[in-house]
Amino acid sequence: MNASGRAKIWEDSHIRKGKLHTQQTAHSSKYPILFDALDFDLPAKLQGLPHLPQRSFAQQRFAKRKEEREHIQEERRSLSMYAHRDALIKAIKQYQVVIVQSETGSEKTAQIPQYLIDECFGSVVCTKPRRVAAMSVATSVAYETGVKLGHEVAIQYALKIVPQSRLSLKFEAAEEILQERTSRLGSKLGELIIAPIYATLPSEMQANIFEPTPEGARRVVLATNIAETSVTIPGILYVIDPGFRKQRSYNAKTGMESLLVVPVSRAGAKQRAGHAGRIQPGKFFRVYTKWSYMNEMEEGTVPELLRTNLSKVVLLLLSLGIDNFIDLDFIYAPPPEALLHSL
């Protein structure tokens, strides 16, 4: 077979294959397309699902937040502090200093600052004794007011707060507010020398209170009862008397001595006042009321013989050959029961 014969045979075979594919394609057209016959009816396929409201997610979230706000406001109005809101605001507007006293759980710490913000008192600072308490109250107030913590409501911690232009209510611990005030003074704040003095303090440290104060510095002497009569400190201009002293007392029933904090006597208070301005004019500040001075303070200090253990006193008298110490003429006679108990 020549080359032209082989070419004709190859051409005829390919023509037959083409006709076969054409017949198969025509034959498949007899069957309908599957997805054209399906009906995707969502309500028919998902039976039992509620009809979704035609509202956006933001609208639903806003409505939920509105309901929460109304519920929070109802709870705030149910508090006992809310009944005195108007009287409290009136008193704050009228007086420079207002002292509020109420029972525990009345939410005065969280509610009163909000009342002041609502009445446009400007920026409000609320101090707490500890940082944990300040953080807890600030978080609660931010939730009630519907603001983000750190914007209108903030916590001062280690002198890091939001800018003042964005601040309405700030909660901070007492430590932070003192650090903030002293940091503003900077180099203007002079040296402050703290000089304690008490009976058991070493003598070389007690001598520091008699050293001259450097120029531009201020010396603060913290003293116990030793400064009333035993020590005279030169250069004292101001004396602050808290009205208390530590006094050793003996309980004959328990046989134990204890160091108690008791009110100072009126004679002791006068003695303290005498230390102010001995060299130049000074001032004396009493941190107690006149009523306390007249009614809670004794005229004089109770003698030590009447409030200590008499065992050492009895042993001393016996060593001196004094046997009848019950009839001894004491300046301040102790109770006979205390003398007998010391035996």
TrEMBL record:
GO MF term set: RNA binding; RNA helicase activity
Keyword DNA damage: no
Catalytic activity: ATP + H2O = ADP + phosphate + H(+)
Presence of the UniProt keyword Hydrolase in the record: yes
Ranges of residues in domain Helicase C-terminal: 141-321
Signal peptide start and end residues: none
Alphabetic keyword roster: ATP-binding, Helicase, Hydrolase, Nucleotide-binding
InterPro entries linked: DEAH_win-hel_dom (IPR042035), Helicase_C-like (IPR001650), P-loop_NTPase (IPR027417)
Pfam families (UniProt xref): Helicase_C
Any one Gene Ontology cellular component term annotated for this protein: catalytic step 2 spliceosome
PANTHER family the UniProt entry points to: ATP-DEPENDENT RNA HELICASE (PTHR18934), PRE-MRNA-SPLICING FACTOR ATP-DEPENDENT RNA HELICASE DHX16 (PTHR18934:SF83)
Protein name per UniProt: Pre-mRNA-splicing factor ATP-dependent RNA helicase DEAH1
Origin organism lineage: Eukaryota, Rhodophyta, Florideophyceae, Rhodymeniophycidae, Gracilariales
